[in-house]
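If your schedule permits, I should be very grateful for your opinion on a structural question. Thank you for your consideration; the sequence and its tokens are set out here:

===
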Amino acid sequence: MNSLTTCVISQSNYIPWKGYFQMIAKSDIFVFYDNVSFTSRDWRSRNKILTKSGELWLTIPVGSNRGKNIDEVDLPNGKWKTKHLESIKRAYSKFPYYEDVKEILEPIFFERGLDNLSLFNQKLIKSFCKYLEIDTKFYNAADLGIDGNRVEKLIKICEKLGADTYISGPAAKNYIKNEFDDSGITLQWMEYGPFEEYEQNGSEFSHYVSIIDTIARLGKDSIEHICIS
């Protein structure tokens, strides 16, 4: 594997915000870290879109799934997929690139046999990346056979995949201290944005909604909006 290889390790989120895709675009390798405990009422199973009335949560009704890892959570039956698509249509159907959003979502939402939350999220994320022409390589942490404590696993994953730079979201400052200092791997803290504003639903602009919002308005130009530098 080539030198100067950058790695990001993160849980799969449901229709994530644009900052998630900025992280993917900045990395050579992105590892879905879904063999860790599922947390309810979190980004794994919900996200927001913006309507004329304000922010609207789209939540997959998976329940608490106490004791399960993210990649062990089943997608529920019911009408939630249709309701989510209808909410997205009502919010964005008059936007110039709504049809692009629809073409990304519908094949995955209606794919037969796709009944696992982690795989569902991953397919959506990869499909958005394909649309945005992000060519990052994807891996699953569960396939790498890594053990150790919380930070040791991150270092070992980077080592196994030949990465010499690890980009971490700022929330990890709560538990990553000086473990990377003697690892031979450079730790970089992700700084999101700064993103420019664009015409949006509602009276107050929000950057912190699903990537759907950006693509519905900007289409393929979303990648230029996301990748500032």
Observations:
- The chain has a mean pLDDT of 95.
- DSSP finds seven helices and seven strands in the chain.
- Residues 102 and 117 are 20 Å apart (CA to CA).
- The first helix runs from residue 18 to 26.
